[in-house]
Amino acid sequence: MRKLHKPQNLNINYIRESDKVSSFVSPWYNPTVFYLAMSAAAVNAQSNEEINNKHMAMEEVIVTSQRIEENIQTVPIAVTALTDKALGELKIERGDELLRATPNVTFSKGNFNRYNFSIRGVGTKSLSASSDPAVAVSFNNTPMLRNRLFEQEFFDVDRVEVLRGPQGTLYGRNATGGVVNMLPRFPTQEFEADIKSEVGSHNTRRIGGMFNLPLGDNFAARFSGAMTKRDGYDYNTVTGNDVNDRDLFSTRVIFEWTPTEKVRANLIWQHFEEDDKRSRTGKQLCTRDEGPASVGNQEIPDDNEIALHFTQGCKPDSLFADEAYGAPNADTLANYAWLNLAVELKGIDKNGRAQRLYDADGNQLRLFNGNKPYGGVNQSKDLREIATNYDPKFNAENDLIQLNMEFALADTLTLFTQSTYAKDDYQSIQDYSRYQSNPIFTEVPDVVYDRRGRVLDIVEFPTTSGGVYMDPQLGPSSGIEAVDLSRSDSEQWNHELRIQSAYDGNVNFSLGVNYLDFETSDDYFLFNNLYNAMAEFYLHQFDEECTDEVEGPCMYVDKNDLDNIDEEGHNYFYGPNAVATRSYAAFGEFYWQLSEDVKLTTGVRYTADSKTTTPYPTQVLLMAGPNGETDEVITGGTVRRGLEADPEVVQRWDEFTGRAVLDWQTETPFTDETMFYLSVARGYKGGGTNPPRIGIDPEIAQYREAKKTFDPEYVNAFELGTKNSLLENRMTLNATVFYYDYKNYQIARISDRSTINENFDTTSFGLELETLWQATQNTRFNAALGYLKTRVGKGEKSVDVMNRTNGNEDWILLRPFFASPSSCIAPTALVEEILSDLKDNPFGNAHANLFTLCPGMSGGLVLDPKYNYDPLVDAPNQGRGWDADLSGNELPNSPNYTFNFGMEHIVGIQNWDLRLRADYYYQGESYARVYNTEYDRLEDWDNLNVSATLVQPEWDLQVELYVKNVFDDAPIVDAFTNADDVGLSTNVFTLDPRIIGLSVYKAFGN
């Protein structure tokens, strides 16, 4: 940038000398001198303007989005390229922040081990270990199915390219949304090094650097790394600790060897590691659902046994209302409700007999003390504040090894090979709800009585005698305690062989083959002290070991602590998901230069995908008889210990996809260079399997039907674009309009303690504008605008778990027996009749009848035949609920508008440059789910970053002071709805807080 100042200073000096001459001229010579001076000035001004424009012309941005080096303005693809310098200026440190520089891009963290990077409304909203990403995230052109794009920070990057639209004829993996390709810097034959150190808010400490070392004439090595440590910017009011901190580092080593002019090879090793208290999600919100006061003309008795059937825990109200900072109605928590009804405390007397316990007033002691677990619980409205006994723990480790080889078969023909191995391990543990329960366990008095008021001599009190329950995994707690663990372990091999031509004629090509071998195990655990309490006090599984000698139904209880579980216990939820993916592909593009200005690009791809899923139905709180006999009375289980795999599910697809692009290079009266292009592309993304549901014998449970698989996605994309250079290359202005016809877009919802991925047909229309303007030698502007309109196809429908009746007053929501995971709906008139019968006969079986109105396991209860109702036959969607009409709804995470604007101005201060920069980003309203209700609405949000950087070009030194998120906003950028049996609470996600930092950068060599 320093060179850009010199022409301007020359210009200033010229004007000053002219002023000196004119000041010495006599008044009567003024007309003549003025004419001569103006003539000379005109000539010099014209020459000087040419010099200025030449120096003000922007540097070309070279990309390899078509696998060859090209000026980005000549590439007929909608692509945003950010060099290492641009990333630093924009303060884009991780992949999730790329949205601040790319139109129609959104990012949100997922609830488990994934994320959703969405381009033009196309992202990954499916939830399955077998899901493919819609946007391929690549390292040096290799797509990584598991990666740390969200956690890992960019370092020693040549550039990051974001390609919008379906890809596959150039890259090794199909992508329906686009590609994010991170390209590292490679070794050079010059010695160079740099180091950057940074401190900032929340005790932020960063250091990074690289060292490039030539080793002879044809060998070089490049070593780079980065490390970040930061205190937490969330606060746990219970433990008093700051959480959501960072402790991570990355390293990369690249060796490059060029033994001859025709052969080049490089070997890359990259390692990432993180071990800290990062939170996987933000707060958990809930607008408490108290349930209805009546059904028809029948009041619901103020009796927990009946009232528990009519609340879903949380209501589908706005996440931005003050009421959203509540907690669920615990009557909907199946295990709590059943334990509250069924479990009475007993102690063992000196004769070894179990005795019911009573207090001095004759009240029978029960497991729970009568407190509502979340009665009166209101959370802090600060999204960065949680209240839990358990601080989060986060571990991630990623290794990548890549070998690239290049052989010049001829002067115009090159063979490329690329082999990549990657391993990714991830584990995140955190409190499930992130707010505290009231004390609920009964504190047993020192003196207890029998029902006749006689003092009992108890030698063995129940485990909750002190009002504290000791959970084997979670330890002591006086209230509800729950912790979930998400982990994944994956390995990937990727091999690619490609041949590229560079003929002088009108036809060229790029042809390749690719093989992918990917295996992953994505596991999820939920530990809850109510699960153990149910096992101990209701199912009585703590009394004896569940061995082969036990004749009746039983289940194995894992009594190991959380760090040493054997993963075979039925006293916690464990859902492993094992998937193996094999993919073969052949792809290529042909380039026909039809004339000097017109080129036709055609590409085709053949893909053969195979996915093998090993389903493991979950076994939480399921008992079984010996030799796999079904527990036909209480739980319907068929396995006593561990999990039992269902038969493997093998899926195969063979698809042809491709694209055709016609581009025209020309000039117009108001541009220096102009390109128009028209593109038609077809994209494909594989389908997958829905995770299995609970392992209950289907003859006992009579569960509602659910698809075991979901279909592949297909998109037909049409795009018209133009790229322009103006003002003697001081400005670029690019525009794109697109239309997508999408079939089978994959969207997940939680159901039956599992996930159902549904397919929907959709359409999308949008517009994108990008511009960069070097207004003066010292002032530069950039801006990008994205407009997006997505629509779900006509006739598409789905059951909204937050509103199962869909407003139909003839039906009412009901909670089922504890073994059934999901709520259902039943006819309002029938429920009213059952309640009326209860009023007439207080000792009737209304409770059992209400249970049996939901399909699924009902604890051996049977609906009274006089009601003549079968939910699997008589209820819509087998009792799941009424379908919501999704026609015309917008896709999740698809705001109508995104906008970014940046301004940079450089002030010369003697031998220093002071670079002042501000960047603003805006994202319009969108929806977290496809139902587009008020509950789903995500408010618009914006973000401002500013920086001031002192640059000493001669010393290769920079000192930067910056502020990220100037307004310290905490918008809700996405939300995830939890399952029925935990109350339909909502996990929300937000941004990092305001960070003020100071960094120093120094380069050496070169």
The biggest sheet amounts to: 22 strands, antiparallel, barrel
Question: From the helix content, strand content and strand pairing, which structural class follows?
Answer: mainly beta
**Cα end-to-end separation:** 17 Å
How much helicity do the residues have?
10-25%
CA-based gyration radius = 33 Å
Count, helices: 10
Which consecutive residue ranges, at least 5 long each, have pLDDT under 50?
A: 1-51
Strands, total number: 54
- Residue fraction in strands: 35-45%
Question: Average pLDDT across residues?
Answer: 89
Shape from CA axes? elongated
Reconstruct the topology from this structure:
Layout: H1 2-23, H2 30-56, E1 62-63, E2 70-71, E3 79-83, H3 84-90, E4 105-109, E5 115-119, E6 135-139, E7 142-143, E8 157-164, E9 178-184, E10 192-200, E11 204-214, E12 219-230, E13 234-236, E14 241-243, E15 246-260, E16 263-276, E17 284-285, E18 287-288, E19 294-295, E20 298-299, H4 304-307, E21 314-315, H5 334-342, E22 346-349, E23 354-356, E24 385-386, E25 393-410, E26 413-431, E27 458-460, E28 469-471, E29 475-477, E30 482-501, E31 507-528, H6 529-538, E32 573-593, E33 598-615, E34 649-666, E35 673-685, E36 688-689, H7 698-701, E37 709-710, E38 713-726, E39 731-751, E40 754-774, E41 779-792, E42 797-799, E43 811-814, E44 824-827, H8 828-840, H9 846-851, H10 871-874, E45 883-885, E46 897-909, E47 912-923, E48 926-927, E49 937-938, E50 941-952, E51 957-964, E52 974-977, E53 986-989, E54 995-1005
Parallel strand pairs: 6-9, 13-24
Antiparallel strand pairs: 1-2, 3-8, 4-5, 6-7, 8-9, 10-11, 10-54, 11-12, 12-15, 13-14, 15-16, 16-25, 17-53, 18-21, 19-20, 22-23, 22-27, 25-26, 26-30, 28-29, 30-31, 31-32, 32-33, 33-34, 34-35, 35-38, 36-37, 38-39, 39-40, 40-41, 41-46, 42-45, 43-44, 46-47, 47-50, 48-49, 50-51, 51-54, 52-53
